[in-house]
Amino acid sequence: MKKPERITIKKVFDVRFKGEPSPECRVLPVSPRIGVSLANLPSIKPKLVVAESDTVVQGQALFYDKTNPHVYVHAPVSGTVHRLVYGPRRQLQCIEIATNSALPPLAFERLLTPPTSAADTKSALLERGLWAYWRQLPFNTIPRPQDTPPAIVVQLANPEPFHPRLSAVLPRVANDITAGLRILQTLCPTIIVVADANESINLDDWSDMAQVVRVDADFNHCSPGAAIYHLKDSDTYNHAWYCDWQFLVKIAQTFATGVYANQSYITLSGYSDTADAHYQVTDGMDLTTVAPPIAKRMVWGGLFSGIAAAESFFLPVGIDAVSWVDTTETVSLMPFLALGAAKPSFTRAYLGHFLKPFTPPSTALGGSYRDCVSCGHCETVCPVHLMPQSLLRQVNADDTDTAIRYGLLDCTQCGVCTYVCPAKIDLSAQFTATKDRLYNEVNA
Amino acid sequence: MKFLYRRLQALAPLFEKGGRFERLYPLYEAVVTIHFGSSDTTRGRVQVRDALDTKRFMILVIIALIPVTLFGIYNVGYQFYAAIGEPASFGSMVMKGLTVFMPILLTSYAVGGFWEVLFAVVRKHEINEGFLVTGLLFPLTLPPTIPLWQVALGISFGIVIGKEVFGGTGKNFLNPALTARAFVYFSYPAYLSGEVWTAVSSSASRLVGYTSATPLGVAAATAQPQAVTDALSEAGYTVMHCMIGLIPGSIGETSVLLCLVGAAILIVTGVASWRTMVGSVLGVVVTATVLNGLVSDTTIPFLGMSPLWHLVVGSFAFGAVFMATDPVSSPDLKPSKWVYGFGIGVLTVLIRVVNPAYPEGVMLAILLMNVFAPLMDYSVAEYRVRKRIPNGL
Amino acid sequence: MWRRIKSSQAFAVFTAPLSIKNPVSVLVLGICSSLAVTIQLKTAVVMVLAMTVVLTFSNGILSSLRKIIPKNIRIIVELIVIASLVIVADQCLKAFMFDVSKQLSVFVGLIITNCIIMGRAEAFALANNPWLSVWDGLGNGLGYGIILIVVGAIRELGGAGTLWGISVMPEAVYDMGYVNMGLMVYAPAAFIVIGLMAWLQRTIISDMRKGS
Ligand code: SF4
Ligand code: SF4
């Protein structure tokens, strides 16, 4: 592992969007009904251990992963299983629980000092239902408990618009992060803490516990994948594990109190000037209690890698940002002739590039689907120095071997290449699909 | 405007799947998106998209071409009246230019558009706006004396063989406008040999040529004891002339100055690669300098033409600015763009000087380098891939 | 009678190379000579004749010898048979059509290396009886011929306005400003014309497949 204090990803990408949530952090009460939604649990094949109208308590197991039978997901609150929601092909989508705060939570053993061995830590995490928050490169899947991580990346920032800023809540969580890092130290000697160089946080406390790296980049470029790409000096780190600071807070609190920690920090953005802020919420909360549906597209996650939420309004497991994107159609005559002072523009083709206006995010495609015109913009923005257009050619030709050689697995699925493509090709979706297919082939 | 848009939208069912004119959907789509832009919304995980699209791309190229086009129209008229020796007003020169240029342009657009629509309908894909650029570039590279049927044949060849056989814009590896021009050049060399490029209409309706050699024609024809520069100045050409461009030549290619204006627009808007342009200028300068060093009593005088002259005569400026930088047919990666540009410069001078049968080398140089573009990209990509830390399964 | 012929194996062997297994436009064999000799219709036709004769006889002879040719020296034997036939053809041309043979120059001699001949010998004649092999040779020769003759006609008409050396473009067309297409005289034109024909034919074939 290289040991720089700072990595600069020299990829200019500074399109700005309106709707930055205010740094104020509000605490929301638990909603009358909560839902454990699997929308953001890739690769999990759930096997239920509760049934409809069962009573569950906070911290009790709800289901486990058939491919990874020790990995359970636990109930964030106590109450009654109200409904099980299935999607197409009888896929479990969501477990709705009617909250009943009168029921006491499940009591785990309090661990006031970190476990002494990796095996102890792992079994403690598994027992407390916290494992599903881990992710592993390169497929962004949940790692197998029996594996040993070559390195662990802890993300202190997700600069994609508009994820929670650690600086907004730092005083409340600083001690928990320290405690969390102590626990992680038992798992792996190589811990990398990745922070956004543009956010002013004091990282000195953590620099003797982990390798602290400030990433100077725009947008999603300080994702764990990008950080590993810029830090790795051998291919053993390709399978590093990663998590974000919220996970550290969760494990630290659960270990210390013996009660399953069910609080998360999220942001709402693009909803309304008054509602766009940071929130401390109960996992799986019903968003309609704070943001009733409006005529905008609701997105779980940020603008570049979010999931368009269908009908469900329960905050999915592992999602820390909710964005609303404008869907109104604006009709203008020959839009491609405009000077475009107010348009989001990565290239100099519109004045927006120079004026850098804060534009309200919109779902408009801004053009029609075409074949790649080899403009090279995607290559200019890729944080891991891929050549997306060449990669796409390999992927389209089904030449997976060459695609892998060209770095397909380094792709962080950040979506920036898709954003800039004038031919409106969804490059990152194709890469993601190919990676998913590969994962399934390898693990079949 | 909103009203018009709603009316168009109301027609959509007729053209969508199952509608009466389902086959003509590409045409409908083109009409709607040209006027109002696309109303598609994002799918997948990237929720927002940049405002740039291919239409903007193409429009910016066309805007960059406007100065040379206008000047070309004026120059056609100017040369006409200069040739027949009559004084004329600015207005009548422009009129004359328009009557010569407009039919060529319209033929090019009509025939090119026909093929584009035909292929779009048969292949069931959208009409690509790329032909708007091709259809304008091609006439600008032609001499004003060109018969219209040759324009029609040329643009058909360019669009069909240069582009559609490979699957349309994005999959073509040759620049369609240049392919069209190469077709006309090889098929009807008498019209493009660089000798007879002033439009003078005789009493009959067809255009006949009036001999007035272009600078390249003069340079190629220079015989031994005389130096090229002398021959050029004897024929009345100075570097300044060629920069401004009030000289006989292809319609849009004479004014180096306005090509530079176009280049500025393309570079400022980020549509064309400055690497390609600079690379090709470097290529010309280096090659011409080397060749100048080889001059002796037995070599042809053309060998001694200075780099500066090479840069300003013929269609080098036009080609390097508008043709070489076509993103589809030029390489994708930045290092290969340098090599590509440099190669164009080198080949341009070599073809001009070493083979005086082809005094205009830019077109062939660019087409040749177009062919090599994928290879350059491949080499650069492989080089970069070697340097990556492997990430396998 | 016709029906019997139609259902015979020989008929299938004979007609396949004329259409869906055309050696030039589908299998892309024998391209080099197609480029060289198709500037005029006449040279193309003569070339086709020479080629067809050589191909038919070589297929027939090699097929009758197929049981006695040792496997390891078969290429040499094939070459000897083909070369002898080519020399005969060349000498005949020199004797009876000297000017055409001059225009064809080395290309008659080079029939020996034409991939169609070796290809058919290897792929067909050595595995089938002489009767079928002769039909196969004839079919492939004519399949090659169709393409050559069409290309030759297009190139001669486009490049010189003549067919078989006779001017067929009316003077009036030239008076209207028509000019012969110089590109047609260059070898790349043959490439392009063959390419277009291959495109057309493959589209038709794939449409046929989809239809049936
Ligand atoms: S290829 Fe695209 S999605 Fe993948 S890392 Fe590069 S920019 Fe991001
Ligand atoms: S941004 Fe899109 S059009 Fe441009 S090179 Fe990449 S894939 Fe091709």
Summarize the main sheet of chain B: 2 strands, antiparallel
* SSE pattern of chain B: HHHHHHHHEEHHHHHHHHH
User: Biggest sheet of chain C, strands in spatial order?
Assistant: 1-2
Uncertain segments of chain B are 199-211
Total count of strands of chain C = 2
Tally the structural domains of chain C: 1
Average per-residue pLDDT of chain B, rounded, comes to: 84
What is the alpha-carbon Rg of chain C in Å?
19 Å
Number of strands of chain B: 2
Strand content of chain B: under 5%
Percentage of helical residues of chain C? 55-70%
The figure for the number of domains of chain B is 3
Tell me about the largest β-sheet of chain C. 2 strands, antiparallel
Radius of gyration of chain B: 23 Å
Which term fits the overall shape of chain B? globular
Helicity range of the residues of chain B? Answer: 55-70%
Number of helices of chain C: 11
- Ranges of chain C where pLDDT stays below 50 over 5 or more residues in a row are none
pLDDT averaged residue by residue of chain C:
84
Secondary structure layout:
The complex is a heterotrimer of chains A (about 450), B (about 400) and C (about 210).
Chain A: E1 6-8, E2 22-27, E3 33-37, E4 46-48, E5 55-56, E6 61-65, E7 68-74, E8 79-86, E9 92-99, H1 118-127, E10 135-136, E11 152-155, H2 166-185, E12 191-196, E13 211-216, H3 224-231, E14 241-244, H4 245-257, E15 263-269, E16 277-282, E17 296-300, E18 307-308, E19 321-326, H5 352-355, H6 377-381, H7 388-396, H8 400-405, H9 416-420, H10 427-442
Helix pairs in contact in A: 2-4, 7-10
Chain B: H1 2-15, H2 25-36, H3 54-84, H4 90-123, H5 130-140, H6 148-160, H7 176-187, H8 189-192, E1 198-201, E2 207-210, H9 215-221, H10 228-234, H11 239-244, H12 256-268, H13 274-293, H14 307-312, H15 316-323, H16 334-354, H17 362-387
Antiparallel strand pairs in B: 1-2
Helix pairs in contact in B: 1-2, 3-4, 3-5, 3-12, 4-5, 4-6, 5-7, 6-7, 7-17, 9-10, 12-15, 13-16, 16-17
Chain C: H1 2-7, H2 9-15, H3 31-36, H4 41-65, H5 74-96, H6 98-104, H7 106-109, H8 115-123, H9 130-160, E1 162-163, E2 166-167, H10 171-175, H11 187-211
Antiparallel strand pairs in C: 1-2
Helix pairs in contact in C: 2-9, 4-5, 4-6, 4-8, 4-9, 5-6, 5-8, 9-11
One iron/sulfur cluster binds near residues 382, 384, 412, 417 and 431 of chain A.
